[in-house]
Amino acid sequence: MSRRCSRPARVGALIALVLFCACLDARAHGQTATGKPPKKVLALHLIRRDSPAFDDAFRAELNTALSGQLDYYSEYIDLARLGDDTYHTALRNYLRERYIAADGVDLVIASGPSVVSFLNQDRTLFQSVPIVFTTRPGLLAEPPSTGIISEIDLAGTLSAALEAQPDTKQVFVVSGVAPFDKLYDDIFQEQQAAFTGRVAFHNLSGLSMVDLEQQVRHLPQDAILYFLSLSDDGAGHTFMPLDAVETIAAAANVPVYSWHESALGHGIVGGHLHSSFNDARETARIAARILQGESPQSIPVTTVHSYTYEFDWRQLQRWRISESSLPAGSVIRFREPTLLQRYRGYVIGGGIIVGAQMLLIGGLLIQHSRRRRAEGALRRSEARNSAILRALPDLMFVQDRNGTYVDFHARDSNLLYAPPEAFLGKTVRDIFPPALADRFMNAIEQVCQTQEPVVVDYELNVDEPRHFEARIVPAGNERVLSIVRDVTVATRALELNRVLAGRVIVSQEAERQRIARELHDDVSQKLALLSIDVSQLSRDLPLPEQRPHLEKFASQVEEIASDLYDLSHRLHPSRLQMLGLVESVRVLCHDVSQQRDLTISFSEAHLPDLIDPSVSLCLYRITQEALHNVAKHSLSRDASVRLERNGDEFLLVITDSGIGFDPIAVDHGGLGLASMRERVAILKGQLTIQAAPGGGTRISVRVPVTPPVADTELVPEPA
Amino acid sequence: MLLADDHVGLLKAWGRLLEPSCDVVGSVRDGRALLEAAIALKPDVIVADLAMPEMSGLDVCRTIKASLPQIKVVLVTGGGDENVARAAFRAGASAFVLKYAAAHDLQVAIERALTGDEYCTPTVMKSAESTR
User: Fold this and answer.
1) What is the ipTM of this complex?
2) Residue B51 and residue A557: Cβ atoms within 8 Å?
3) How confident is the model at residue A384 (pLDDT cuts 50, 70, 90)?
4) Would you state the pLDDT for residue A548?
5) Three-class SS of residue A673?
6) Shortest CB distance from A578 goes to which of B6, B17, B51?
7) Taking Cα atoms as reference points, which of A225, A234, A180 lies closest to residue A207?
8) What integer is the mean pLDDT of B93-106?
9) Is B100 in contact with A525 (Cβ distance < 8 A)?
10) Given CB atoms, is B56 within the 8 Å cutoff of chain A?
11) A to B CB pairs, distance under 8 Å
12) Chain B CA closest to residue A517
């Protein structure tokens, strides 16, 4: 259940709040926080309430001086128009009833000479209340009082007007018939005397407003109009002076001048203008001093000249009056701002926007220029690349990770395995035989994972069997670039080289074997026979003393036979035939161990008794070469040789723990590696060298148990 | 005594050397013929060249020693080293003789073989027997 007050309770609370606030307000008005009552000031204005007055100026000045302890009243008594005794008496009674009979006032401000005259008529009204006045020369308030005398300078405007319009010959003076109007008319009559002879004066006072308007519409072009004051016209109509000046200025066909600043902005060009606000501020300052304790007698009456040259910019424009012709120090009001001033925000904003756009455009132009340069460079680069591409015999294919063909380049479309429409958008599995497709896919995956190039060598039937090399490189974005080159000619040349090299090796071995066999089968046998014959001859000699000669002779034959055996063995390992591969390799390991002071272990497994002589010779020669390298280059003190059969292959592995070598650097060079490769290639076997500087060496050879039939197709026919 | 060598001149020379003290029952010129003759003739001693056509002396030696171990085999070679000699002894040979030393070694080798000893031409292998 919510807590809500009943209606009577809320009304009661509201009343209590209002009473509380009223009490606070009463305290604020009656007594200040310091305990001193506020100063009660009555300002009497000679004009109507709807005329411009200076309450605000008085109040502001006094409030500041009294720190807010001010009880301010004002009366607008309209003495400018109402001057008869009956009114004065009624007004006096009113003021007495309202201000004297009640609490009285601390100070009276008499704003204007008419007010001073009114108060002087009966000083008992505000007896002993100090009066601070604003008056004209020759009229002071009865004591206790002080104030300012505001000079009346109507000639200043006239001289300024003639300075601004030096061609002026006539001055038409507008004035009303009210006492206030007449007062200024009289003063002007006195002050115009200084201009007699310079211009002609025409008095337009006493006319009705209608006539006045009519008359000022047709004034001569060498004339100006001087508006003094118009509260009542000749027809008895009352006007607010500012309304009157506005009406006349609107009707006049010549510039209108006046003497009071309040008229500026109501149609006058300007003049030497009196500032009543300045008078009001000066008056209020004196009032504040008295309220703060000074006596009126101690403050002398001062004369104030509250005039400045002020002009309305719009009227100067209207009458084509140059600002340079105005008196020095003139203030120009109502200056219409220039387009730039009027739309300053827009202009600045627009300027910023335009500037920003200019910067943007500049930036875009620079970017455009750079882009054009870049595009030019790109075009040149593309042209260069295109020329290179045209010149390249290679085929190029862009593929994604799934092996799908995305793009291609072919100098000659006849080089393609399939027409573009048959492979673009398809995968390698759609194009190539399964085994080859698998190799491609494995390679692509490897490239994507390692970001390293992979080379795939393969053979395809394009009219005839042809060899290709696909160099697959990463192309970013999960794509690869395959550069495919037809290496048939090179492959065939290589194959031919191998065959020829094989032939060389084979024929060399055959020739060596033939020579070795000749030595063994013929020369060696003959030596053996010779040896037997010599021995028998020695035994059968009748003279024993001749035997040593024959025995020496027999010894020389043995020596020759031994040398012959060594030569024969070097030419061809005849013990391969005698001992077989396993024993020969075992003996070889033993011999090298002995000769080179190495520890060489040999092991074998699953080897048959009969091994094809060409296979035996190949494996023996490779072992011989490899152990030679171990002894000469590896700096290793040990090595191992392993010989075994693995299905249809023999496997030979020679390892050492020496300093190793860079296989690429020496592949085409020494160490007999080339001859090893050739020997293996003859048998369609495989030689693998695993070696790294400092990491030992492992040479493994795989050769088929049954050697292939010699390939003679690639061997050129003899000439 | 059964002789085997593909060189006819040597066969004759060996015959001349051995006949005064031995009974030469046959001469053959290749390994396979030697094997067949050995099975047929069952000689006490076979003198065979190490390198013969059809079948090497080592292979013949292994086969004969496997089936007819009582037959002594003297392997003769035109050239050979200690490794070959070791292989010959491993194959079951009783002696290893170089051909150019045959004039005086062959007789000794046969005599040693018949007494169950082994013999090797001294210049071939000084320590062959100890490293068998």
Assistant:
1) 0.84
2) no
3) confident
4) 82
5) helix
6) B51
7) A234
8) 87
9) no
10) yes
11) 95
12) B51
Three-class SS state of A566: helix
Helix (H, G, I), strand (E, B) or coil at A696: coil
Q: Residue A389: its pLDDT value, please?
A: 73
* pLDDT tier at A225, thresholds 50, 70, 90: very high
CB atoms within 10 A of CB A347: 14
B51 touching chain A per CB within 8 A:
yes
Q: Which residues 65-124 of chain B have a CB within 8 Å of chain A?
A: 77-81, 83-84, 87, 98-104, 123
Give contacts of B3 with chain A, Cβ < 8 Å.
none
Distance from CA of A596 to the nearest CA of B (A): 17
Confidence of residue A32 (pLDDT cuts 50, 70, 90): very low
Per-residue pLDDT reduced to its tens digit, A637-679: 899 999 999 999 999 999 998 888 776 666 555 557 888 888 8
Determine whether the interchain pair A529/B58 forms a contact, defined as Cβ–Cβ distance below 8 Å. Answer: no
Interchain proximity B80–A578, CB inside 8 Å: yes
CB atoms within 10 A of CB A511: 12
The side-by-side arrangement of strands in the sheet containing B45-49 is B26-28, B2-4, B45-49, B72-77, B95-98, B119-120
Q: Choose among B50, B78, B84: nearest Cβ to A528.
A: B78
Residues A493-511: tens digit of each pLDDT: 888 887 787 788 888 888 8
Chain centroid offset of residue A649 CA: 69
What are the respective helix, strand and coil percentages of chain A, to the nearest 5? 50, 20, 30
Query: How far is it, in rounded angstroms, from Cα A659 to Cα A654?
Result: 15
Q: What percent of chain A has pLDDT over 90?
A: 36
Measured between beta carbons, the chain A residues lying within 8 angstroms of B60 are none
Helix axes A276-291, A55-65, angle to 10 degrees: 30
Asked if residue A43 lies in contact with residue A61, where contact means CB atoms within 8 angstroms, the answer is no
**b or e along A454-475 (b: 16 or more beta carbons within 10 Å of the residue's beta carbon)?**
bebebeeeeeeebbbbbbbebb
- Chain B neighbors of A568, CB-CB under 8 A: 79
Chain A: give the shortest CA distance to residue B121, in Å. 12
- In residues, how long is chain A? 719
Q: Is the Cβ–Cβ distance between A428 and A441 less than 8 Å?
A: yes
Q: How confident is the model at residue A446 (pLDDT cuts 50, 70, 90)?
A: very high
- From the list A531, A564, A590, the residue facing B83 with the nearest CB is A590
Q: CA A173, CA A187: separation in Å to the nearest integer?
A: 12
Of B10, B59, B79, the CB nearest to A561: B79
Q: Tell me the nearest-neighbour CA distance from A687 into chain B, angstroms.
A: 29
Residue A273 has pLDDT above 70, yes or no: yes
Token pair for A714:
């690639």
Query: Is A177 in contact with A232 (CB distance < 8 Å)?
Result: yes
For A146-171, give the secondary structure using H, E and C: EEEEECCCCHHHHHHHHHHCCCCCEE
